[in-house]
Each structure stands twice: as C-alpha cells, then as structure tokens.
Amino acid sequence: MIHTQQHAVYSCKWDQESQSLGRIDLLRGLDPQQHAPFSPELYSKFKYGSSAASQHYALDIYRTVRLLFANELEADATNLVLTSAAYKSMPTASTALFANALALINDERRMKGLAVIPHIKIHRKSILNKDYGMLTHEARAKAMQCTQLDIVLADHPESSTSVVTDYLRGKHIVIIDDCIITGAHMNCVTNHFRNNIPGLREGDDVQLTFLFILSVQSNTATPDRSTTAAENHLNHYYVTSLDRWLEMVNSDDAGPVNRRMVKYFLTSNTSMENKVAILGQLRHEAVLQMYHGAIADDIASSFTEQMEAIERQIGINDDRMKEKGCCCWDYSSSTSTSTTTTTTTTTTLHRMRRVSEETLEDGTAQIV
To answer: Is residue 165 classed as helix, strand or coil in its secondary structure?
Structure first.
C-alpha cells in the first residue's frame, strides 16, 4: 500500500490581481534564524543553474529533513531512500538540489559512523518539448498522464522489476523537488508507484514523502487561471531575456546546463540571427551540454534549425567529433537503448556535484 505526504520549506499564496506572491511562511518547527527570507530572484537563478542558489536551498532541504526525520537519521539501519523529481538524461534544477542535499545528509552520517542514505532515480521515458511552467492545470495533468516512468536503483541500474519491487518494500522514499503548484508531477509519481510496480501487496507499505522548497496556492476561486502566472513569475523573476540567460550560463557560478536552460534557448521567440550571436558568446562546454542534452532527451528533432546552429557553432561535422563532445559531458545518445540510457542517467548524479577534500570548520564537506 502506498502512503503519501508532502511538506514545503516555504509556503505562500499567489495574488492573481496584483500578480505577486503573498506572505511567505516558513514550515513550522524550522528556525527562522537559520533560514533567510524566500527570494524570488535567488529562486529564478536556482532554476537557471546557479550553484550558489542550489547550495542555499539544499541547506534548507537538509535542515527540513533533519526536522522531519530526526529519529531515522540517527539510526544506523534506516528505511529512508532519497530521490529527485523525475528526469531523463538532462539534469533539472531539482536534480542539483537533491544531489547537494544528499551530500549534506550523508556527510553528517559518515562523521557519525553511520551508513549513508541510499538513493534511487525516477527515470522519465519522454520529455515535453514545451515549457512546463507555462502550462495550465489541465494541460499539465494531460502531459503527466502521458508521461511514462521507471524506477532505477542507483547501484544496480539494470535490475529487473521484481528486484526493484523487493527493494522498495517497507521503504520511506523522500522525493526532493523545487516547487509544487498544481501537484501534477506529484500525482504522476504517486500513480506510478501505485499502478506500475507489480508485487507491492497489501501490507508491503511504501511511504512517499514529497519535499519542496516552495508550495504556492492560489487565492482565487479559479486557481487554474493563476497557475501559469505564478510559476512564470518565479522562474523568470531574474531571467527575463536571453541576455540574462547568457549571463547565467556563462557565470563562474554556473553548474551543468539543465533542461530548463536548454528549453529556454530553443523555445525563445527571438530571431535566429540573435540566437546565433548568443551561441558565439557561450562557453564551449555549455554549447556541448546543450547539444548532447537535447539529443539525449529526444527534443532535438522539434528544433531542427536551432540544433543545426548549435552544431555549426561547436564544429561537429562527423560522428568522431560527436563522440569527442560526449566525453566532455556524458549524456547518452538518442540512439541508445533504454538500458544504456537509464545506466547513463543514473551516473548523472555523480557528475552533478563535486565535494572538496577540504572540510569546513564544522566538519562537513564543502559542495563546490
């Protein structure tokens, strides 16, 4: 039987009339002295790859996990398993959030001589070639109904369904995500656990806890009308143009190029001439990540003109050069088998974070 609950570090209501966030409340039990007021600008930078912003919110998540699961975290043998929101090959902002939070949690457990908390991957078999944040409640629900998922064990990515089922029995799975507005993704994941994992019998309880940075509710009688405005406001509070996008991608603070960053470029209404000019200013690694990421997530074919421009920019003219590009960022190719894809995406977690060998004064590893 699947049991679910949800928590958010911050919660607020969206005022449709003023097009702004209302009062933002901190989760009860968290210390306001340890949590800075929620910043839409920082959140927007987080969604567009800022490492500092991701680390900031990972610390919020870490403290919330300690609050909610204090007993489990102090026990050597725990049934906790952590994961991020579903993704295919390209990481999302929540992938980096999860990786940084998991590092903080497990660094503390290692210091105490406790076993690390394991993780799994919720693998998306297909990716929407539109900006999900711009969809209405109804459109999101339809998109999620068409989304197929797989559960992948991090240490054994090619495990059979029966092995995965046996592993999940009795587990408490914490899904770390950035924001909940309509709950479509949460419902999709919950339904997958309920309907697509055979063998979870009555009595084989699995607890799903969805943990978000922010929960946004509407203050109107028709919340669907404000859904798009609220998420668009948050995602693009700082990143309002391709110039701002370029600033984020080229920043010294930039992490790996994520799916939102790629989609923003591909779906932007600006001219191809302007896009080509921007590509010429991008750091080379970012161009490679965009190219192979779009192919790996099977969205490249929807943006042929843009992909050709990206290909020209990085001088990829033959298969040998493409392979050389893949070495810079190990995305699976679009022709990979499903097994290869899930194997590659499982290892993405390990590429999302680097932990320095030096430790901070409090003994925890520094995520850089």
So the answer is: helix
